């Protein structure tokens, strides 16, 4: 059977780093509050004029280099974002053009913070279905563009960045010991729209809008749903929690990550953490964490990696990878 294997990873973070203390003279907040309530210490913000497709292109180039492939080897680009350069065309097509790819498909997936998990499952289905052989799967965001800088409950949480993986078709016996994406679990429940949304858009206000969030309610859903989706995906893969080598969670809040690891009975030394350095980069957070951990040489071939995320929609899910 065909299976999708991660052949390479890459990421890009804008050069501008903003420490928690930067917010202290603008808002009634403190480094202490942000650190203890979220685990965030600093984040990167894109420069003026630097767009989501710019960040995504850099991450994609890094992933290609890491894979030992050239742009011509890629026959699909799937990009997760909620902060596209333009309403259309898809950011994926802009990255495709920047890389000089002229064939295959390119489109965006929008599932907010769960976007990369959705895009990865989508790319895996395309590969297993025979629609592509090598897909660049990218998560890229410039959430700094949709912040309400007067709302201390949201603007201290988010950062900009991009991460990418190259997913490649490989023949497999179908055994869970073989490399590749083993299983996915995706969920959405649109009745929770008001918990987390952007209050503008093309067909409503005609403006880009700003992010609105009832953080404590999102927090509760996250703690309840993330361990559950990870367990469901592990079940589908025929694996036990004891067989998990790494949890690579969406990096929204250290307290959510810790609670999820606890529910899964995973020690924190099996959890990849980037939230302190990156903040919440929405769809970019998981591919960023994968790429950072990969650069540090933390993953061994054959390791079981659990990714999970929840975000606006609500949408949430998990993908299980045999590295
Ligand atoms: N500095 C100081 N005080 C603050 C700040 C701040 N930056 N932000 C909020 N507070 C205050 C609140 O006003 C509140 O004060 P009050 O009690 O006087 O009203 C108090 O802190 C507690 O507020 P809560 O919202 O209950 O704090 P909580 O512990 O829940 O932390 C946080 C807030 C960090 C937002 C948390 O709820 C969270 O991380 N939620 C999940 C967010 C998330 O995971 N989003 C994921 C998806 S993102 C996406 O899809 C785009």
From TrEMBL:
Belongs to the thiolase-like superfamily. FabH family. It catalyses: malonyl-[ACP] + acetyl-CoA + H(+) = 3-oxobutanoyl-[ACP] + CO2 + CoA. Its main location: cytoplasm. Keywords: Acyltransferase, Cytoplasm, Fatty acid biosynthesis, Fatty acid metabolism, Lipid biosynthesis, Lipid metabolism, Multifunctional enzyme, Transferase. Residues 234-323 form the Beta-ketoacyl-[acyl-carrier-protein] synthase III C-terminal domain. HAMAP family: FabH. CDD domains: KAS_III. Residues 251-255 are annotated as: ACP-binding. Residues 107-190 form the Beta-ketoacyl-[acyl-carrier-protein] synthase III N-terminal domain. Homodimer. The last Arg residue of the ACP-binding site is essential for the weak association between ACP/AcpP and FabH. It comes from Paracoccus fistulariae. Catalyzes the condensation reaction of fatty acid synthesis by the addition to an acyl acceptor of two carbons from malonyl-ACP. Catalyzes the first condensation reaction which initiates fatty acid synthesis and may therefore play a role in governing the total rate of fatty acid production. Possesses both acetoacetyl-ACP synthase and acetyl transacylase activities. Its substrate specificity determines the biosynthesis of branched-chain and/or straight-chain of fatty acids. The gene is fabH. Pathway: Lipid metabolism; fatty acid biosynthesis. This is Beta-ketoacyl-[acyl-carrier-protein] synthase III. The active site is at residues 113, 250, 280. It is found in: Cytoplasm. Its EC number is 2.3.1.180.
